[in-house]
Amino acid sequence: MKHAMVTPLLKKPTLDASDLGNYRPVSNLSFLSKLIERIVTAQLMDHLATFDVLPPRQSAYRPNHSTETALIAIFNDLLMSMDKGRGSALLLLDLSAAFDTVDHGILKDRLRHSCGVDGVAHDWFVSYLSRRSQSVSVGGASSASSNLAFGVPQGSVLGPILFVIYEIPLYHLVSSTNVDMHQFSDDTQYRIDFQFSPNAVQQREALSSLADCATVTEDWFTQIRVKTNMDKSIFMYVSSARSSSQLESLPLQVGDNVLAPSLVARNLGVSIDSTLSMIPQVKDVCRKAIFQLRRIGKIRKYLTKAAAKSLVQALVLSNLDYANALLFGLPNELLEHLEKIQRSAARLVVGAKKYDRITSHMKALHWLPLRQRIVFKLMVLTYRCLNGTAPRYLSSLVGRYHPRRSLRSATSGKLDAPNIKLDRYGGRSFSRAAPVLWNELPLSVTSATDLKSFKTSLKTHLFRVAYPC
């Protein structure tokens, strides 16, 4: 029940296989132990939600939270800052083997004092953490069993939740500063905005605040036996293309580490660039999709249409749909690259030739075109914001329209859209795009009584918009 068989997995296919630091130690546990963990996790998450224990901007392993909701909130703040003519400094902090260095004594204290887990429940967690062991399996050979005095097993159901609990005090530590923080498990990112000024005075002040926050964070992680990896941490500036000329390429110094500003960074599975043009992300998605289409194409003649459709949806369309809400408002010539991928995928499924018209085939497959898929994602999130099931950091961005005078529009169900200066920045933000798109929907869609009926009505409406004939 407490023994794990660790199988090292290379984090990325492109990494050096001879470097042991490039492997992720995934623990394979017994089926029964994971089943028990699922039951405990369900009860623990209900308890944490009831008493609002977890930090509001920690998006990992929580109902209705995801990497996508985290990214939408981060991009919203960055885009609105750019719309106001400001710049932002962004630090993506990397931790070394965070799950493996968890101190059980500190974790037990967190469970009792931060989460209110006491009595028999606390005793169960003490038993869960104690006397654990593991063996490493490589190439069919296994090592001798070794006892684990620290850490929570990667690959377990409960381990990631326990790590989130382990770092709860960090939120209270950073909230006293002027730096914004967002977390997804052990991925921690800091953001601070600044006005452009002569001699980059405000930029330097912002960097100083960010460096101080990072130093305090590094010291705090050291106290709880977690090592920050500044060599793999990424620092970058984000500003509009026009304002980038006013930026000074100042590095961020955290202790003895000096981080030079990057132009592109990988953040929660999305490639972001310093102007949020999303060109690197579109290129990455196209490259992955083309690779998968070629693989499926080699075996297409052995597949039924239904099997080919399932493969394409799982391996190609899933890549197009991930974080596609961030693509709203991008230039048509950029989105056209992704639309070509979707049309190629449809041709592969139905067996059409390269230059055949594909609209009727996509309609028969019941596939919404790319732009409608983006709108669908945004509107579902907006509906969840209005019915209270979305994360608070998204729900706070959407509000009902309340006119200053008594007007008939007060009961129209419209949403309030903030004023912006530029469509290419503020117009792409969730706080602006969500109400603008929502207010354009027919009343029959927005008046749906539950999420399932809303999705059905929304898809029907978008399908008619995409295929009017």
TrEMBL record:
This is Reverse transcriptase domain-containing protein. One of its GO terms (biological process) is DNA biosynthetic process. InterPro entries: DNA/RNA_pol_sf, RT_dom. Residues 1-258 form the Reverse transcriptase domain. PANTHER family: REVERSE TRANSCRIPTASE DOMAIN-CONTAINING PROTEIN. It comes from Daphnia galeata. It comes from the Eukaryota.
